[in-house]
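Structure tokens please, single chain.
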Amino acid sequence: MRDNRWTLFAAILILALGLPVFAIAQEHPEHPEEGKAAGPSLTKEQLADAIEAHVDEVAEKNGGVYPIDDPETGKALRLTLQKVHEERLAQTAPGTYFACVDFGAPDGTTYDVDFFMKGDSADHLEYQEFSIHKVNGEPRYTWYEESGVWKKKPVGDEGEHEHPEGEQPEHPEHPEEPPPLG
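Here you go.
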């Protein structure tokens, strides 16, 4: 009987001490953990590595440059990777990840390109699409969240986007948090 009381006391003590820590950790469950890209088994470093590997593979087949057709200007760009921003990585949908990548062109133009990768683990990430976010620091669009989904808004688009709480969300440079996953 004495052992059962000690076991019960120990279990209650562990629960009492553990619940506040769990509650604090769950206060903002939509925020990715430090060093993570919001997926339970994918770190920011792994996502950055996958993007760099994709860029390197394509560049190797194209004389050392990453070719992109600029849909806005119609120009065929030949870019060189400068940096994958590990501080600007987020999950934008289940299994879909976003990263900001800087490229340089031979003429000195800089391009901030948003890359989207898809996969369920670091070993299965695949390139999906890109979007030229900025040219020489001038943004072409911003991001807003609508009904839990990150969407692009062209710069200068004065149209209002509905927000569930009736307030307009800020228009960040990049999606900084994943939308709620349901």
